[in-house]
Predict the structure.
Amino acid sequence: MSLQGKRALITGSSRGIGRGIVLKLAEMGAKVAINYRQNEAAANDTLMKVRERGADGLIVQADVSRPDDARRMFNQVKAAFDTLDIFVSNALGEIFTYYRPPLDITPEQWEKAVDSQAKAFLVGAQEAARLMGKGGRIIAITYRPGGATAGWQPYFAQGSAKAALESLVRYFAVALAGHGITVNAISPGIIEDSILNSFPQDAQDGIRAWHRAGWTPMRRLGTPADIGNAVALLSLEEAGWITGQVIAVDGGASLMNPDFPLEIQRG
């Protein structure tokens, strides 16, 4: 199975999960557009790694939370690729600018979260669909626990925005089904080399220990390569009957029951 000759755009792909997606698609033969917001050096480093894998691509700067910026990005991709086969909406935005609990957050901070996720996907899916033919793939990177639970209070704005993003995935899946374009979301578990690495070290250590103890049944955190593998699978021709889904790629973490201690669950 191959993605030879396919053209892909991945937002927020100079580092972390986005880079893992880029490198996997490149390994499978796709030409990739690497989007970055600020870190041009990291984007160029990712492009170098793409070329080491025998593929090619380009870097394109844009803040996808700004619709005009996002449209400019798609125009650059169209000029370079002519068409688009795969669009992955991955960019996270500046999460710590709106990392506030419900009683403290301002409307302006709330809007930043929605702009970085729901609005960015709305514009991105519309623009991507215009460049795609039958067999196109649109994939959003979400975090389902953030939209389905509420214990992580400072994640309030981002969790709500991710819930809206997942709703958009379902609506676009129906809207684009007649065009032969699938629309899905992938919900990673806790991933190394991601936002986790921006937390204080003691928080990182606690999260890793928690999941290795069994709250992730596979007893490790995920990697950007794990998410790249999942995106690659959904991008294949053989995945053309899967649409409108939010797929957990989390080593089984979403299967655990928070009502019972781990010792009881393990039997």
In short: Residues 107-131 form the longest helix (25 residues). The longest strand covers residues 182-188. Strands lie at 7-10, 31-36, 57-61, 86-89, 137-141, 182-188, 246-249. The chain is about 45% helix and 15% strand.
